[in-house]
Design brief:
23 helices, alpha/beta, disordered N terminus, globular, 6-stranded parallel sheet, single chain
């Protein structure tokens, strides 16, 4: 153990808390999220002193969701700090969310004194084993001298290759050990020197022959389609996608969090003709999106049995798993640069009168016209469409920079995905690959600190809001520009939906498992902390609340009362178009 000794007593000493904080700062970390307590409170305070903004939450689960989304929005590791034992366990929600969405994040947890392991110490848990299923990398600083190296290894691992979650364990005794400042500085310098990020991440070589094959497939396609997802958004590939789409005239389909890489209003957008586009295309270039449940596994009946997939993914393992016709392993931005360069040497483009484009355009116009006819009606008591139209228009009126939209819920998220319009990259955060409920307020807070120039607007179902509603106090405490709109229909999917035969048994008079208190005053919750609350039930009330809250750019909750019979059960996304 590196305790202070006679050689260091005449020098200024640094403890593990300060060395950990300085290690984060040396890496370039500027934000942390978490819940403090024994043994990490001093670490958090030292991090603030080192120039890192610490956003303190009420619950580690929400803080973890914030850290994961921060990693996605910034491309830098989101940092979650928790106490040991139950704090670490709560933090695993965010860590697993980062892994499944492939976002860079590091969960740092304090742990019990190493001398007391196995003796039933305070909040003792084998946190390394607990974190392994949800981590790309796990590490433990067993001595103060290991702290910088352990930090840099975890941070590097989070962002290199396919991004993901990493775990770092900091035992209590290590945080209290001391070394001289000069030795600490030397250890940090050594960690910087060997960091793979500092040296430049190892680049994956993309064979020019494979790029040529991909371009030949696209050139000879009769019904091509470009599909892109949040992997392309993370890679900042929007300019390359724009060039590809507009040089080839190919229609495109974003996944929900790919929306905005190209504007939803683009003439080649095929979202409103999704079923036709994926069902009839013969070559699909899939960029930064996995052929999982969100894309029906790339299989029949949604896709044609003869479709040829060109899969662009940073992970060779993902390409091997999906077995596409052709795989291009590498960063989406860099791969598309090569594809565009190859196309430029021998250009090709679908004309606007091409039968494929005409078919998609016709179907898009039909579906949009049908949707707009429904949206045009002012239905009171509110259904989902009327307030969603009003919210859409209010968000579009903000202009650029466009607000970050956080969407969570069952019906609320499903309807919002079809109605709300994304015009700029990385401005939509939703339940993601796992369909995770409870992410809302954490994502809002991450977006507000990662994109301080943007307004953040959350459109939440009342069930989704309930998971993290107490974090409205966090919004007020840090005065973040977040407006939370709650679609209040009295429960999950809309309250009591039981059939008469299901209302039986000794507890039949209890509220239904899907029911909440009718007419809950969610807007009052934020008022308890000094924020602004609105209760709305008509179009004019909602328009007024949106106008006032958007202009103020202060924490607010708008409680939108929805007809409890307006919703439907929601699970896997159903696309009717």
């Amino acid at each position: 153990m590196a305790e202070s000794n006679s050689q260091t007593t005449s020098q200024t000493l640094m403890d593990g808390n300060t060395l950990a904080a300085k290690s984060l700062a040396a890496y370039g970390i500027t934000h942390m999220f978490g819940v403090v307590g024994i043994p990490v409170t001093s670490f958090a305070n030292r991090a603030v002193a080192a120039g890192i903004r610490f956003i303190a939450f009420h619950n580690e689960q929400s803080a973890g969701y914030a850290a994961s989304a921060y990693g996605y929005l910034t491309g830098r590791p989101g940092i979650l700090l928790t106490v040991s034992g139950p704090g670490c366990v709560h933090g695993l929600a965010g860590l697993s969310n980062a892994m499944i969405n492939t976002w860079p994040m590091v969960l740092i947890s304090g742990s019990c004194d190493q001398n007391d392991v196995g003796r039933g110490d305070f909040q003792e848990l084998n946190q390394i084993e607990a974190a392994k299923p949800f981590s790309k990398h796990v590490g433990k600083a067993k001595d103060i001298k290991e702290i910088p190296k352990c930090f840099f290894e975890a941070l590097d691992s989070a962002v290199l290759g396919r991004p993901g979650g990493c775990y770092l364990d900091l035992p209590t005794d290590v945080l209290h050990q001391t070394i001289s400042e000069s030795e600490a500085d030397s250890l940090i310098k050594s960690a910087v020197d060997v960091s793979e990020i500092e040296k430049g991440a190892k680049k994956m070589s993309i064979a020019s022959l494979e790029v040529e094959k991909a371009v030949d497939l696209l050139r000879n396609a009769e019904r091509p389609l470009i599909v892109f997802g949040k992997g392309a958004a993370y890679a900042r590939a929007e300019n390359e996608l724009k060039r590809l789409v507009e040089s080839t005239g190919f229609p495109f389909l974003p996944t929900p969090m790919g929306k905005g890489l190209l504007p939803d209003t683009h003439e080649l957008a095929a979202s409103a003709a999704r079923s036709l586009a994926i069902g009839k295309c013969d070559v699909a270039l899939v960029v930064g999106a996995r052929l999982n449940w969100l894309l029906h596994f790339g299989e029949q009946p949604k896709w044609s049995k003869d479709v040829k997939f060109i899969l662009v993914d940073v992970s060779e393992e993902e390409i091997e798993l999906r077995k596409p016709h052709l795989g291009l392993a590498g960063d989406a931005k860099k791969v598309l640069e090569l594809v565009n360069k190859e196309i430029k040497e021998n250009p090709f483009c679908l004309g606007k009168n091409h039968p494929w484009l005409e078919a998609i355009s016709k179907k898009t116009k039909e579906n949009v016209s049908r949707m707009e006819a429904q949206l045009a009606k002012d239905v009171v008591p509110f259904n989902f469409l009327t307030p969603m139209r009003i919210i859409r228009n209010a968000i579009l009126e903000v202009g650029s920079p466009a607000p970050v939209l956080v969407s969570e819920g069952a019906n609320t998220m499903d309807v919002g995905r079809a109605v709300l319009v994304q015009t700029e990259p990385r401005t939509r955060l939703d339940a993601g690959t796992w369909g995770t409920m409870g992410v809302g307020l954490g994502y809002c807070i991450a977006a507000a600190v990662a994109e301080p120039h943007r307004l953040v607007v959350a459109v939440e179902g009342d069930s989704g809001f309930g998971f993290s509603a107490m974090e409205v106090e966090t919004l007020v405490r840090y005065q973040l520009p977040v407006v939370v709109i709650v679609f209040n229909n009295g429960g999950v999917y809309g309250g009591d939906r039981r059939n008469p035969e299901e209302i039986a048994g000794p507890f039949k008079d209890d509220p239904a498992p899907t029911s909440f208190v009718p007419g809950a005053a969610y807007h009052v919750l934020i008022e308890a902390f000094g924020g602004k609350g609105y209760l709305v039930g008509t179009p004019d009330e909602l328009k007024s609340a949106l106008s006032e809250s958007f202009s103020a750019r202060k924490p607010a909750v708008i409680n939108v009362i929805i007809d409890p019979y307006a919703g439907a059960e929601s699970g896997r996304m159903q696309h009717k178009n």
